[in-house]
Design goal:
- Helices cover 45% and strands 13% of the residues.
- It is α/β, with parallel strands linked by helices and 284 residues long.
- The chain has a five-stranded mixed beta sheet, with helices on both faces.
- Strand 1 and strand 2 form a beta hairpin.
- It is elongated, with a radius of gyration of 25 Å.
């Protein structure tokens, strides 16, 4: 530790003065300085490089638990505490964002469906329950609204829709995509937004005999996994982009949902697996 301190201060102070102050010999310092790094130091340096690579690949969104999960998936043997320690030392930290405004407008929702989910966020099979919600993405051309549908079992995004306007077609397009790709769910849950109470959306639900569920009024926790997804989307991506056009935002959001989130991002709720990988592992 003394030699390391001298190394950091040698450009500002005389080495012999530093050695005298710390009661070590100058010859000992120079001998230590010329020795090759120890095996332990080399292992830690190699691990730091892998941590940095995993952090960058995650769009700088991963903390120590997810970085450790990614390294484990790569076959790198290391302890989570060691990863956390090295990340602190190297000041490798995940991005953070500000809180977002609530966009749900339930004032015009006349016919409210019952809350069938009741915060039971663990289901035993795919298509037992889907969650849906809508958020807004800022661009230089104006808002781009994103509706997403999540399979609660794997936390995968199974359907989505994007539009410059917030209307009934937006949520319906997302649900139609999900049904076309994954079949028909037993329950589809959303907040009380008026978008989810239109005849167009409910006609699609009735056509496929799906049971509709809605959160309680002004209670975002009833749809917490979808809120968490949108938080991750904006933390990992949106708040660090300056979209010039809606088309640019569409391409970016598509890549995030279909490539990064569904196939690569480690999800803490499903044992740090990626959503699609979790589904394949548990269903196989």
């Amino acid at each position: 530790m003394k030699y390391a301190f001298i190394e950091t201060q040698r450009n500002d102070h005389c080495v012999r003065t530093l050695c005298k102050a710390l009661r070590v010999s100058a010859s000992g310092y120079y001998a230590a300085r010329n020795r090759p790094p120890s095996a332990r130091t080399q292992r830690q340096s190699a691990l730091v490089l892998k941590i940095q690579e995993a952090h960058v690949a995650s769009r700088q969104s991963y903390g120590a638990p997810r970085v450790h999960a990614e390294l484990a998936a790569q076959g790198v043997a290391c302890c989570r505490n060691t990863v956390a320690k090295l990340m602190r030392q190297e000041q490798i930290v995940p991005r953070t964002i500000l809180k977002f405004r609530v966009t749900t407008n339930s004032g015009n929702t006349k016919a409210v469906s019952p809350n069938l989910l009741r915060r039971r966020f663990k289901v035993k099979r795919p298509n037992a329950c889907w969650l849906s919600d809508i958020t807004y993405i800022p661009t230089r051309e104006g808002w781009l609204y994103l509706a997403a549908v999540m399979d609660l079992y794997s936390r995968a995004i199974v359907g989505w829709g994007m539009s410059p306007s917030l209307d009934s077609k937006l949520a319906t397009d997302a649900l139609q995509m999900a049904i076309a790709r994954r079949g028909v769910p037993e329950i589809v849950h959303s907040d009380r937004g008026s978008t989810y109470a239109t005849w167009l959306y409910r006609d699609l639900i009735r056509k496929h005999l799906i049971r509709q569920s809605m959160s309680r009024k002004a209670n975002c926790w009833d749809n917490a996994p979808m809120e968490s997804f949108f938080h991750s989307l904006k933390t990992d991506l949106v708040m660090h982009c300056d979209y010039q056009t809606r088309d640019e935002a569409r391409a970016s959001l598509f890549e995030y949902m279909e490539v990064f989130y569904n196939r690569q991002r480690h999800h803490s709720t499903i044992n740090y697996a990626a959503p699609l990988a979790f589904k394949e592992l548990t269903i196989a």
